[in-house]
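Posted in: Structural Biology > Protein-Ligand Complexes

Title: Requesting predicted complex, alpha-D-psicofuranose in pocket

I'd be grateful if someone could produce the 3D structure tokens for the following input. Sequence and ligand are given below.
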Amino acid sequence: MTPKLLRRAREALDSFAIETPSWGFADTGTRFGKFFQDAAAIDLNDKLADAGEVNRVTGCCPTVAVHVLWDFKAGDDPKRVAKLARQHGVQIGAINPNLFQDQCYKWGSFGHNDPAVREHALQHCYDSIAIGQAVGSEYVSLWFADGTNYPGQGSIRERKAYFTAALQACHEKLSAKQTMLVEYKPFEPAFYHTDIADWGMSYLLCKKAGPRSKVLVDTGHHYSAQNIEQIVAWLLDEDMLGGFHFNDRRYADDDLTLGSIDPYQAFRIFHEIHFFAADRGRMPKIAYMIDQSHNEKPKIEATIQTVLMAQELYVKAALVDHAALRKAQAKNNVVDAELELKKAFFTDVAPAFAAWRKANKLPADPLADHRKSGYERQAATERKRRRQELGIVQGGGYA
Ligand code: PSV
Ligand code: MN
Ligand code: MN
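-- Reply #1 --
Done. Output follows.
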């Protein structure tokens, strides 16, 4: 790497942080089953400890997203939870209300035709926003399983109106520090229509809700051939991109580790962000988050693997020579334009990572360091014993 590229890589590394999901450390799997791991986190303390271990070895995961019903018990003091996080070297990140688990949501949450259920969902969102304020979190991250399974089942327009009103009501409760992220997903669990099925619907609802509402792009929530980086470029240009849920997939919402299938796609997404920043002279504020569920891989290892991949692709995308790219674009030189992206993608960034880790007193090889630390073995022994003592049978919970 030239000194210029090394400097650009170092700047990218200094500015990049990605949030780990608390649910990625617990026993999750597919809707058909789960394969349990002794080292899987039992409670929020375990999840925060695991997130702390990921941050210890990678140095770029200071925050942890929480899912309110999975992580908070009735009567939990959010301030105590924030303190617990700090004890593990992390902070509480995005607050995810749960609007799909309760039996009352059979016909929807914000989209339900019964005002009492909509009110119940709204109250849960208000509580989640208040938790966010108490723990000092910047983001409330909303995903809705709402939709219908059969043609004619519900009024799509009526449900849209319910969503518009409820999101506006949520927006009113936000503090000046909070941003509300609205996630979309084309299908699952609803298979005929999903109320917020794509970025356009999310965009419209955010616009109507208010200025502190932005779109959340979950990379797994698109049809296979969709050009996700184009969506990212459009949202950036409209100042409506709020954050990401990163994962990879072969088919649909597979929640596989990032870059395991198509690292070039994540690179292209990061490229759009760096290209935008170069044009505007400022890096947009984006919440980079992971949303993955690991049924086979050890959970902490899978998370470290994902973080390292995200970091690497973010750095490589920062190396694109924008002046050369612009020049090639101006001449409609398709080959050279494409090669500018390829050149950055195939750059060996190992020297930049080695220097950055050394400067930040981080392990040279985060995954190897985690393995050597014995953390996983110790967690497995201790958590297995604790499960037996508490009579906990592994299982339960949708992910
Ligand atoms: C739904 O598929 C989703 O992507 C939402 O972000 C949920 O919060 C998360 O997965 C749960 O794993
Ligand atoms: Mn998601
Ligand atoms: Mn998902």
